[in-house]
Amino acid sequence: MVCILGANQHQSVVRISVRALLGCAAILLCGCAEVQQPQQAIVLATTTSTRDSGLLDELLPIFTEETGIQVKVVAVGSGQALAMGRRGDADVLLTHAPAAEEKFMAAGWGELREVVMFNDFVIVGPAGDPAEVKAAQSAVDAFRRIARARATFVSRGDDSGTHKKERALWDKAGVVPGGAWYRVAGAGMAQALRIASELNAYTLSDRSTYLFQQQHLDCVILFEGDPDLLNQYSVIVVNWRRHPSVKRAAAHRFVRFLLAPETQQRIARYGVDRFGQPLFRPRDAQVVVRVEQGGAESHNE
Asked: Which residue in 48, 99, 114, 157 is deepest, having the highest Cβ count within 10 Å?
């Protein structure tokens, strides 16, 4: 049977069909937009001190709110972070091992490297100070005193920036550490500090992690202020030419965020309200320049 519609009926059917089609198209487009535009994420391989000090908890939510880019944090030692970069397992790195970073860049694994901030290392230990580290004339002298006293020392032992600095200080002291007094934690900074506290031992720590954890520790700062203890943090974008999967644009955006004046001011203020001093110094801080002029650059490790 053939149904013949009048002109008015035909126009009504056409209008209804067009509306239906437009409605379906809108639903499909919305669905496709959700599928095709997921929230972007980058992988940040970082030294444990930026996590253990709470700094990343302060900065990353602001970055995500401003950019919509999520940051997946993998907190490991600087050596392991650089290894992740070589494997292409991270988009951006935040490390504190200048000599290793320079080799990483020279080998072509990194596209961009920028200094972000500084703090310093401190030698902590039991308040009784059996090795008389407080009387040391330098960080190297402090290490010699610990070795002579065979006082228990806890090493990170994880190829981190702190571990690299520790090894450099032992080398300068002419000491090959070992034996019962030398304990290898194979752990991050916060855990190494807890082990040193439990063993009534000495260890080398970045100042930020020690201050952030000190209420849980039974150890004190015994030596500080040597230019040899300068601690420099840099951000590196992994070279997308080596690893095309690297989210280059998002990684560069993260670098710009870290170097922005507003972020540098947040870094300079971080910790002041709680500890009476900043846990990190921005990269252009005058106090850092004076330390570098005192000879720290030749000892970066």
From this structure: 48
Q: How many CB atoms lie within 10 A of CB 79?
A: 18
* Sequence-distant (≥ 6) Cβ neighbours of residue 172 within 8 angstroms: 140, 143, 228
Give the integer Cα–Cα distance in Å for 3 and 31.
37
Separation of alpha carbons 138 and 143, rounded Å:
9
Residue 31 has pLDDT above 90, yes or no: no
The model's pLDDT over 65-74, given as tens digits with 9 standing for 90+, comes to 999 999 999 9
Q: How many domains does the chain have?
A: 2
Residues 6+ apart with CB under 8 A from 77: 47, 48, 156, 158, 159, 160, 161, 162, 163, 188
Predicted confidence at residue 284, as pLDDT, reads 86
Q: Find out whether 277 and 269 touch, Cβ atoms under 8 Å.
A: no
- Which pLDDT value is given to residue 182? 98
Say what the pLDDT of residue 35 is.
40
Q: Is residue 10 part of a domain?
A: no
- Does any domain span residue 162? yes
Q: Which of 268, 256, 209, 247 is nearest to 44 (CA)?
A: 247
Cβ count near 78 (within 10 Å):
30
User: CA dist 214 to 58, 75, 193, 207, 251, Å?
Assistant: 19, 20, 9, 10, 33
pLDDT digits (tens, 9 = 90+) for 201-250: 999 999 999 999 999 999 999 999 999 999 999 999 999 999 999 999 99
Q: Say whether both 172 and 263 belong to one domain.
A: no
Using pLDDT thresholds of 50, 70 and 90, give the confidence band for residue 39: low
Structural domain of residue 193, as residue ranges?
120-229
Helix segments in 159-277, DSSP class H: 161-173, 189-199, 207-213, 248-259, 261-269, 272-275
